[in-house]
UniProtKB/TrEMBL annotation:
PANTHER family: XAA-PRO AMINOPEPTIDASE 1 (PTHR43763:SF6). Gene3D superfamilies: Creatinase/methionine aminopeptidase superfamily, Creatinase/prolidase N-terminal domain. Its EC number is 3.4.11.9. Residues 21-152 form the Creatinase N-terminal domain. One of its GO terms (molecular function) is aminopeptidase activity. Keywords: Aminopeptidase, Hydrolase, Metal-binding, Protease. Residues 549-607 form the Peptidase M24 C-terminal domain. Pfam families: Creatinase_N, Creatinase_N_2, Peptidase_M24, Peptidase_M24_C. It is an enzyme of class 3 (hydrolase). This is Xaa-Pro aminopeptidase. Belongs to the peptidase M24B family. The keyword Cytoplasm does not apply.
Length: 609
């Protein structure tokens, strides 16, 4: 009945079976007179999702998380992961071959500086590390009296016999009715930023920036419609896009050639070097530009100027067409969500549904819209103790039945050509405990505090983050992730530079879309998260002496009333919840079948104090 087309539930190869690969890598390193090598979980552009041909860390170690790094030395090896992945890494790698260490505190560099010896040569691939990452590694090597060596070719690739081919998905033109602003206008904006930077050219090392600038999309990586590519925008003259020509139909090529020269990826190095030979200052994005690009520019006599990619902020502020599109996408998504939530409510109490059933059902309801291009990330469907694992991904091995007395946490999103969605709902199956209701209501109050926030222009996400945590803190609990991230327009579901978190230093601007997702996780017990997407809009306050902003909630899905302790809510909070549910009912109900309408009426009925 239901099936998932865009996600799988298989367990990857793991553990002892992969240890022969480690031995083969050590032989290759010895042949190259290297003492060790650094293997990041990265492609050339530091993408969140990477094509199978770039999954070197997973191939070598068995660890499949989205963030990590391995260091292989002659007699020892370590894999570094953050707190989200400690449990996963311990299960996936061979504990006899790999030590599992912290990626954050302390960072891998401190391990490197204490495990290398004087005279050691640690190799790294300069195409897979940013310059700042390479500098930290070089400093760690110097501390040990060792040397960091940039390799010409990656030694992992030399031993990876059946390495997949790089992706060649066709490029699609992102039409003006969805993009809203033509390429020529965007290039003018970018050139004005280049002038402010005082440089001769800007390298677009982030494929998201290329996709946004030239109004193209693709399918080279999972879940984000990216065509892997680079571009060079000079302060004067035409930009150049570097992309594999095999991805381009005549239509896509004609579209690109209206605003740029189009060349093969291997033309990028000589093009950059020719520009650098004149002593040009060339701007590079700190977050995505490979160290190899800085080296290339400097070696040819140019000046690499590292900083923030100005396109990130331009892209984060959505135009009127993108905002209209995302509202449409959320209304469409809401119909699929209502059908899904009604289905779970009907079927889960029998104890027959599993976490995988939930993933497959939700994707099917979204495909039924006729507009789904992909899921925006693999659905997190966790019940009972699995719900307490923040980045849980269900496999056939971990799959749990959804039983009465459990909570089901389902975090999912969709890619539609007119917008990207991301939503989390936590559902009670059967009768929830008093503790579940208390924690859920505290999370809800934090969620409402963000949704109702009014703040002056220039306010950052870090300044708002506490609003989401205050009621959890009052009970002596917290959550270990940010409150919200930026979201793209038919691009990445995790988009910078703005976010609502302790680290969110970018001011929030009107037109930005951010998630609002506080949570609570009881280890081995249950997980709770409530997530809506919010659009930053102007706040209309009579007598205001400053320019003020607020949030417009885009997501339209019921919040489980059975988990709310109404006595804990203030009048304003209850009014917000009832108004939100009335809006969900008004906007979503007309598109539903009769049975789902009846369910929605009940799920959004007014709550009384």
């Amino acid at each position: 009945m239901f099936e998932a087309h865009f996600q799988t539930f298989e367990e990857p190869e793991a553990g002892v079976a992969l240890t022969a690969r480690l031995a083969a890598l050590r032989e290759e390193l010895a042949r190259r007179k290297l003492t060790g090598f650094v293997v990041p979980r990265a492609d050339q552009q530091q993408n969140e999702y990477v094509p199978p041909s770039e999954e070197r860390l997973a191939w070598l170690t068995g660890f499949t998380g989205s963030a990590g790094l391995a260091v292989v030395l002659t007699h020892e090896a370590a894999i570094f992961v953050d707190g989200r992945y400690t449990i996963q890494a311990a299960k996936q790698v061979d504990a006899k071959a790999w030590a599992v260490e912290s990626l954050i505190d302390p960072p891998p560099e401190s391990w490197v500086s204490t495990h290398l010896k004087a005279g050691d040569r640690l190799g790294f691939d300069p195409w897979l590390h940013t310059s700042s990452a390479a500098e930290r590694l070089a400093a760690a090597c110097a501390k040990a009296g060792a040397e960091l060596v940039a390799v010409d070719s990656n030694p992992v690739d030399a031993i990876w016999q059946d390495r997949p081919q790089p992706p060649l998905a066709p490029v699609a033109v992102h039409s003006l009715q969805n993009a809203g602003v033509a390429e020529a206008e965007k290039i003018t904006q970018i050139k004005s930023e280049i002038a402010k930077l005082g440089v001769d050219a800007l390298v677009l090392s982030d494929s998201h920036a290329v996709a946004w600038t030239f109004n193209i999309r693709g399918a080279d990586v999972a879940h984000t419609p990216l065509p892997l590519s680079y571009a060079l925008v000079p302060k004067d003259g035409r930009p150049t896009v570097f992309i594999d020509h095999r991805k381009l139909s005549n239509l896509a090529r004609d579209h690109l050639e209206q605003s740029a020269d189009v060349r093969e990826p291997d033309a990028m190095a000589p093009t950059l070097m020719a520009l650098a030979k004149s002593g040009a200052a060339i701007a590079l994005d700190n977050a995505t530009a490979a160290d190899a690009l800085s080296r290339l520019i400097a070696s040819a006599g140019g000046k690499p100027v590292r900083g923030s990619d100005p396109i990130a902020l331009l892209k984060a502020v959505k135009n009127a067409t993108e905002i209209k599109g995302t509202r449409t996408a959320h209304r469409r998504d809401a119909v699929a969500l209502a059908r899904f939530l009604a289905f779970v409510d009907r079927e889960a109490p029998s104890g027959k549904l599993t976490e995988i059933d939930a993933v497959e059902a939700l994707e099917t309801f979204r495909r039924d819209t006729g507009a789904l291009k992909d899921v925006s990330f693999p659905t997190i469907s966790g019940t009972g103790p699995n719900g307490a694992i923040v980045h849980y991904r269900v496999t056939r091995k971990s799959n749990r039945r959804i039983a009465p007395g459990d909570l089901l946490l389902i975090d999912s999103g969709a890619q539609y050509e007119d917008g990207t969605t991301d939503v989390t709902r936590t559902m009670a199956v059967g009768e929830p405990t008093g503790e579940m209701r208390d924690r859920f209501t505290r999370v809800l109050r934090g969620h409402i505090a963000i949704a109702r926030a009014v703040f002056p222009d220039g306010t950052t996400g870090a300044q708002l983050d506490t609003l989401a945590r205050q009621y959890l803190w009052a009970a002596g609990v917290d959550f270990e992730h940010g409150t919200g991230h930026g979201v793209g327009s038919y691009l990445s579901v995790h988009e910078g530079p703005a976010r609502i978190s302790k680290l969110g230093t970018t001011p929030l601007k009107r037109g930005m879309i951010l998630s609002n997702e506080p949570g609570y996780y009881k280890t081995d017990g249950f997980g709770i998260r409530i997530e809506n997407l919010e659009l930053v809009v102007a706040a209309d306050i009579e007598g205001a002496e400053k320019s003020m902003n607020a949030f417009e909630t885009l997501t339209l899905a019921p919040i489980d009333r059975r988990l709310i302790d109404v006595a804990m809510l203030g009048k304003d909070e209850l009014d917000w919840l009832n108004a939100y549910h009335a809006r969900v009912r008004a906007e979503v109900r007309p598109a539903l079948d009769e049975a789902t309408k009846a369910w929605l009426d009940q799920a959004t009925a007014e709550l009384k104090a």
